[in-house]
Amino acid sequence: MRRDNSSIIHNYDWCSFERHYINRNISDGFVLTKEQRYRLRCYYTESGFVADVFDVARFWKLQKFLYPNRWLEAWLRRELQALMQDEDVDIVLHHLVGVMESFCKRFEQRRKQEARSVETTNQEQFKAVVSEAARPFVMARTDRFVDELELFLAAGLNLEAYDAIYKKRLGWNNRREIGVASEEREEVEEHNVRTRVTPYLFISEEDSD
Fold it and tell me: How many angstroms separate the CA atoms of 17 and 182, rounded?
């Protein structure tokens, strides 16, 4: 038996896309949540525009990257699901966490052997190893993803508090607080922060049972 599965590709940015299946019985389509859509839109904004709020330089100077962050895995899961357009990101998540933990262990060992350390070198090395680990999965968004990870760690906040500051700086809070947010307004907002908009692409797929 042959079956045609029609789908619509949208939000294509030359690197990633969202897929909507016209046949609602298809089970392998992943739909982003409202918060995941918000995070994906953040990747179309100017990089580093909230760095002054979270004081990244102080984060490295005080070597706070050595302290565990209990919200890190939740943040990583949301970012990876949004960027990879996939719900099952646990393998990638634990791979990245393992890379960061290994970096911290190596730093601790090196610190015992050296009398002092340079914050800039730590920052560059940390971002380099995380970039190498993440690049096969988030590809063209790797550098921005690592910048966002650095901001989240420097903030030292849970997801709700972090999002509140981020959205306030973006100016996205006010619309929701006065109760006039809608899907149409979100589409306009997304159009404003994108540098390019690509029309929907209609794709027909044939599956054989």
Answer: 22
Angle at 9 between CA 17 and CA 46, to 5 degrees: 35
* Beta bridge partner(s), residue 5: 205
pTM assigned to the model: 0.58
Contact indicator for 70, 154 with CB cutoff of 8 Å: no
Per-position b or e across 52-80, b if 16+ CB within 10 A of its CB: eebebeebbeeeebeeebebbeebbbbbb
Q: How far is CA 65 from the centre of its chain?
A: 19
CB-based contact 141:83 (threshold 8 Å): yes
Task: Give, for all 209 residues of the chain, the pLDDT tens digit.
Answer: 444 445 555 555 544 455 554 554 444 568 899 999 999 998 988 887 788 888 888 899 888 989 999 999 999 999 999 999 899 999 999 999 999 999 998 888 787 666 455 566 788 999 999 999 999 999 999 999 999 999 999 999 999 999 999 888 888 765 444 344 445 445 544 544 444 333 333 333 444 44
Question: Domain locations in the chain?
Answer: 2-208
- Report the greatest alpha carbon distance in the chain: 71
Tokens (6 digits) for 53: 């709020």
- State the Cα–Cα distance between residues 123 and 57, nearest whole angstrom: 9
